[in-house]
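Researcher: Please translate sequence to structure tokens.
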Amino acid sequence: MFIYSLRASTIKLVGVACVALTVLITLIAFVPTYADNNSTTAGAGDSAVSYSYDKIKTKDDVINFLSQFGWQVEAEPVEVKTVTIPAEFDKVFAAYNEMQKEQGLNLLKFKNKEVTRYTFSVTNYAGYDGTVYANVLVYRNKVIGGDICSADVSGFIHGFENNQE
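Model: Translation complete:
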């Protein structure tokens, strides 16, 4: 059995600490950062717009959320209802979730959760004479999904983005 003892000088210890610190700083500088789900950036080129999806506690917060996209809605919601995201998505709900994914949201992680759905009448939808609704799904004070849709059976449905200009 052999026993080795090593005595590091102060200079070697400081050198090792400096190398470790340099490696740590390099890793921090080159590790990619990931955006959180609280806001989404949309837009083309240099004119990107950022939307906030959190801090939704009241109907007024929902109105302010929709106004970020340029939508004007009635002051009182048509309906505020607790709904459950299904545990298994059928074809219709899977297609609805694909629309959510296009706007940076995803309902998959909210399967079987109770969420609040706010429905407002949109007052500034250009080029359409019928009734238009804004549906906003909120879970734990965050918008997790929603849409702008017409009340007609053969109408339309799309995400929050206002592409009428």
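Researcher: Any highlights?
Model: Strands lie at 39-42, 49-52, 79-84, 114-121, 132-139, 142-150, 157-158.
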